[in-house]
């Protein structure tokens, strides 16, 4: 990635962070851990993240899946964040660096504070470490949650009665684990608060014996109020869980799309090409790649400026997207002013000639990557 491309990427990262309040920052590191792009307006040239556990994980693990790490203190903002990272590879599949998004724990704390838990507590555990809690115990953020995990066990969801390893208070609790990410949300209520409703109910039953219908009516009202509170609390907990799931899905989608053109980015195209190539080999079907390179783009960009250049790339992307109409075909931004079209299935000669008239293959596309069967 050239310096010009990194400069163009800087405002894109800043814009994404500004539009997403859950994000603390977006960062790109090279294979040595040096910062090469970030949503921060300024940063020290000596900063290096090679010592982070997520960086070591991606350097030694070839998987391209996103990693949700334990809470850490950010080098740039000195605030607690949750790192969500992904490995970057070069054209030959070797480790080229890490893409990092950081979620603000302050934002998560504000989300938890929206819920009225009375004498109870709401706790969020990320990757086996305490991330957020209401009411807040700042000294516990980032600490291991092994003691809490031993209380919860290995189930994906459940409830129980135990003494809290955080503050030592006996509580009733319920919890649920994230299906795709190492998240645990725990809601708990103190014994006194929960049993107080039972004590009131017992008194009402005694009064029912003495006062008959009047006491029975009062008991029914108490029970209905308690049920409404429980239903409301469960609904709010589900909404918080859904909000976290939507935020994670949005981040995953952002990692697959090119911010300027809206087309899939290079990393997503590489994975799509690998799957399409294997399927074509298995099924014995044709597979065509069309490389699009905008001629004289550098001269155009230097003459009219980056804004016009970006507009040019956006219009080219829109034109390519309009040309490719079959659902199994695929258009992506390969890098810079280069875009690529992946054509699946048996393509007729007329279709191929039409594609050649619209776009010309780039001289920079490696010849050994082209499947020659599409031209036969």
From TrEMBL:
Reactions mediated catalytically: 2 GTP = 3',3'-c-di-GMP + 2 diphosphate
Keywords of this entry: Coiled coil, Membrane, Transmembrane, Transmembrane helix
SMART domains linked to this entry: GGDEF
Pfam families noted in UniProt: dCache_1_like, GGDEF
Organism domain of life: Bacteria
Transmembrane segments: 203-223
Annotated GGDEF domain residues: 285-376
Listed InterPro entries: Diguanylate_Cyclase, GGDEF_dom, His-kinase-like_sensor, Nucleotide_cyclase, Rev_trsase/Diguanyl_cyclase
E.C. code: 2.7.7.65
Coiled coil location: 223-250
PANTHER family, per database record: DIGUANYLATE CYCLASE DGCM-RELATED, REGULATORY COMPONENTS OF SENSORY TRANSDUCTION SYSTEM
Protein name per its UniProtKB record: diguanylate cyclase
Source species of the chain: Pseudorhodoferax aquiterrae
């Amino acid at each position: 990635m050239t310096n010009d491309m990194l400069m163009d990427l800087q405002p894109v990262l800043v814009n994404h962070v500004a539009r997403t309040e859950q994000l603390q920052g977006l960062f790109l590191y090279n294979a040595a851990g040096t910062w090469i792009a970030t949503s921060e307006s300024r940063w020290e040239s000596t900063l290096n993240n090679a010592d982070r556990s997520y960086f070591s994980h991606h350097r030694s693990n070839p998987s391209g899946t996103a990693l949700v790490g334990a809470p850490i203190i950010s080098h740039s903002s000195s605030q607690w964040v949750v790192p969500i990272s992904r490995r970057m590879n070069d054209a030959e599949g070797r480790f080229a660096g890490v893409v990092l998004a950081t979620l603000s724990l302050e934002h998560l704390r504000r989300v938890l504070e929206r819920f009225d838990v009375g004498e109870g507590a709401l706790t969020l555990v990320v990757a086996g470490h305490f991330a957020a809690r209401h009411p807040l115990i700042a000294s516990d953020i980032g600490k291991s949650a092994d003691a809490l995990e031993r209380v919860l066990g290995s189930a994906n969801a459940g409830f129980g009665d135990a003494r809290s390893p955080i503050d030592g208070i006996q509580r009733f609790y319920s919890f649920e684990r994230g299906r795709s990410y190492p998240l645990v949300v725990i809601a708990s209520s103190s014994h006194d608060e929960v049993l107080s409703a039972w004590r009131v109910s017992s008194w009402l039953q005694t009064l029912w014996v003495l006062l008959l219908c009047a006491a029975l009516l009062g008991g029914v009202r108490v029970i209905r109020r308690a049920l409404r509170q429980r239903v409301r609390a469960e609904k709010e907990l589900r909404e918080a869980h859904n909000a976290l799931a939507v935020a994670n899905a949005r981040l995953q989608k952002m990692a697959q799309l090119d911010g300027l053109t809206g087309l899939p980015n290079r990393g997503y195209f590489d994975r799509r090409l690998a799957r399409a190539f294997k399927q074509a080999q298995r099924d014995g079907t044709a597979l065509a790649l069309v490389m699009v390179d905008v001629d004289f783009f550098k001269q155009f960009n230097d003459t009219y400026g980056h804004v016009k250049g970006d507009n040019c790339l956006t219009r080219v992307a829109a034109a390519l997207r309009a040309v490719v109409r079959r659902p199994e075909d695929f258009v992506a931004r390969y890098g810079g002013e280069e875009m690529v079209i992946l054509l699946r299935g048996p393509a007729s000669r007329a279709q191929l000639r039409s594609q050649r008239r619209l776009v010309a293959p780039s001289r920079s596309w490696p010849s050994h990557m082209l499947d020659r069967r599409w031209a036969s």
